[in-house]
């Protein structure tokens, strides 16, 4: 009799509500599970977070619970949360998200303001499998500290929690797995600094590790984004020596796979249900709100004004590309607002000294910035578009380099004072430094959560009716 036995492991991550892909994933996983059962071999399955993304109408209309209904088909042992589960829903919504889950959520570094873990999560799980292998699993998520605090949570240092719980359970299990929504560099650090983990299943940075990454005794897996791939590992366990003999990792492309019929039907029903909820009327427009991406237009001007008012600021600033379409005359529903402004992006109020405000405005109005095809930071559109200001007037001049250069700036009719502090209502994606570096000099940032930009738009459109 062989001294080795096989354990088959499957993992998904960063679906970001690309739900059309999910029935294909389920078909692949179900067929693999049936094959392993026929061969009298054991398989286990995990999700590593960011399954939800509120850009999708099903996620928006069901407050993410539709995603969990779909996840139930995969036979997950455990899942952890990503930032899209953790910080795009209110505390109440997150507390209800997993009410009907048939898998256990693991998040070792999330507690409430009293220091208690949420009722729906545990720091770790220990499973005794059908082949008597004992598998320990720990979950951690990315520490978006400020956002979690504004939502009524505390986010703990994930590395300290990993050390704490791995030290506690390593001796109780044969195989120790980390579900990490921290990103590949963090996973490599953990694999290097800790000798506790056999497997790290990663996410967040959307890497496709086609054959895994073997670092010391640890194998790291990550399967990209949008459900195009499913991660697969085949673990050979030596029963006599009670140790892993070999781990073979790969990513399976399931894009051309046939969808699972039951999962596809469930998705259709969830779509119908979500559409009914999103058909709630917001207002009725007496005239169309037209939109242009590369010059001021009624809709983008309205949005800039709205965010200034919402944030109680002197200046409003939004890029026109945040709006994907204009709105025609007639009824406007929540579905319309979600379609034209699907980004999981929050309002933000900045305080910025005049000299840095001037630098930011100059940068924001360049052709390069207007044409920038932004990816990430919550943006779900196509192009940055023109920066639209409310409360700011700019005089610029076309110079020989064929660029318009800012000559004078007025704030609410007064010349910009380079030493004065100004309040700016804008969106949080500008505070991460990459797009507008001058924002890094902001002396105060206030984020509004859980409201998103489309909530500001909803509020503004309702206020237009007398």
Explain what the structure shows.
- There is one protein chain.
- The chain is elongated.
- The strands form six sheets. A seven-stranded mixed β-sheet has the order 6-4-3-2-1-14-15, with helices on one face. A six-stranded mixed β-sheet has the order 7-8-10-11-13-12, covered by helices on one side.
- By secondary structure, the protein is α/β, with parallel strands linked by helices.
- The chain contains 14 helices and 25 strands.
- The mean pLDDT is 95.
- Helix content is 29%, strand content 29%.
- The protein has two domains: 4-274, Metallo-dependent phosphatases (Purple Acid Phosphatase, chain A, domain 2, 4-Layer Sandwich); 280-463, 5'-Nucleotidase, C-terminal domain (5'-nucleotidase,  domain 2, Alpha-Beta Complex), CATH 3.90.780.
- Helix 10 (298-310) crosses helix 14.
- Strand 10 (175-181), helix 8 and strand 11 form a beta-alpha-beta unit.
SSE order and pairing:
Blueprint: E1 4-12, H1 22-38, E2 42-47, H2 57-62, H3 65-71, E3 78-79, H4 83-87, H5 91-97, E4 104-106, E5 110-112, E6 121-122, E7 124-128, E8 134-141, H6 145-150, E9 153-155, H7 158-169, E10 175-181, H8 184-193, E11 199-202, E12 213-215, E13 218-221, E14 229-238, E15 243-253, H9 261-278, E16 281-285, H10 298-310, E17 315-319, E18 330-333, H11 334-340, E19 347-353, H12 354-364, H13 367-370, E20 387-390, E21 392-398, E22 404-411, E23 414-415, E24 421-427, E25 444-447, H14 453-463
Parallel strand pairs: 1-2, 2-3, 3-4, 4-6, 8-10, 10-11, 11-13, 17-24
Antiparallel strand pairs: 1-14, 5-9, 7-8, 12-13, 14-15, 16-18, 17-20, 19-24, 19-25, 21-22, 22-23
């Amino acid at each position: 009799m062989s001294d080795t036995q096989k354990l088959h492991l499957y993992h998904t991550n960063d679906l970001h509500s690309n739900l059309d892909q999910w029935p294909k994933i389920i078909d692949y996983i179900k067929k693999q599970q049936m094959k392993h059962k026929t061969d009298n071999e054991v398989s286990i399955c995990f999700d590593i977070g960011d399954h939800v993304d509120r850009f999708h109408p099903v996620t928006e209309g069901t407050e993410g619970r539709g995603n969990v209904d779909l996840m139930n088909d995969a036979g997950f042992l455990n899942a952890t949360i990503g930032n899209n589960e953790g910080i795009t829903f209110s505390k109440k919504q997150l507390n209800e998200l997993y009410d009907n889950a048939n898998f256990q959520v693991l998040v070792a570094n999330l507690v409430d303001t009293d220091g208690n873990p949420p009722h729906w999560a545990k720091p770790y799980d220990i499973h005794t499998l059908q082949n008597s292998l004992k598998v320990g699993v720990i979950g951690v998520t990315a520490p978006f500290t400020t956002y979690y605090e504004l939502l009524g949570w505390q986010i703990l240092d994930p590395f300290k929690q990993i050390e704490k719980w791995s030290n506690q359970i390593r001796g109780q299990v044969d195989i120790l797995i980390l579900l990490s929504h921290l990103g590949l560099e963090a996973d490599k650090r953990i694999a290097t600094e800790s000798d506790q983990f056999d497997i790290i299943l990663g996410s967040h940075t959307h890497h496709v590790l086609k054959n895994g990454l073997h670092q010391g005794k640890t194998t790291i897996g990550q399967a990209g984004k949008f459900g195009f791939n499913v991660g697969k590992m085949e673990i050979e366990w030596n029963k006599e020596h009670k140790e892993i003999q070999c781990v073979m990792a790969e990513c399976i492309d399931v894009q051309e796979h046939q969808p699972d019929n039951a999962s596809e039907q469930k998705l259709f029903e969830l779509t119908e249900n979500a559409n009914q909820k999103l058909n709630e009327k917001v207002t009725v427009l007496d005239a169309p709100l037209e939109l242009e991406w590369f010059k001021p237009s009624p809709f983008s001007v309205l949005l800039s004004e709205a965010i200034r008012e919402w944030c109680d600021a002197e200046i409003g600033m939004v890029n026109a590309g945040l709006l994907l379409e204009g709105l025609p005359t007639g009824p406007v529903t929540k579905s319309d607002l979600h379609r034209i402004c699907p980004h999981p992006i929050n309002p933000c109020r900045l305080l910025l000294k005049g000299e840095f405000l001037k630098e930011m405005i100059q940068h924001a109005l360049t052709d390069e910035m207007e044409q920038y095809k932004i990816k990430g930071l919550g943006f779900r559109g196509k192009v940055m578009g023109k920066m639209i200001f409310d409360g700011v007037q700019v005089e610029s001049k076309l110079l020989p380099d064929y660029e318009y250069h800012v000559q004078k700036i007025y704030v609410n009719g007064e010349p910009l004072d380079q030493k004065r502090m100004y309040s700016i209502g804008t969106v949080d994606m500008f505070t991460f430094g990459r797009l507008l570096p001058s924002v890094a000099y902001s002396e105060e940032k206030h984020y509004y959560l859980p409201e998103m930009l489309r909530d500001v738009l909803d509020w503004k459109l309702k206020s237009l009716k007398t």
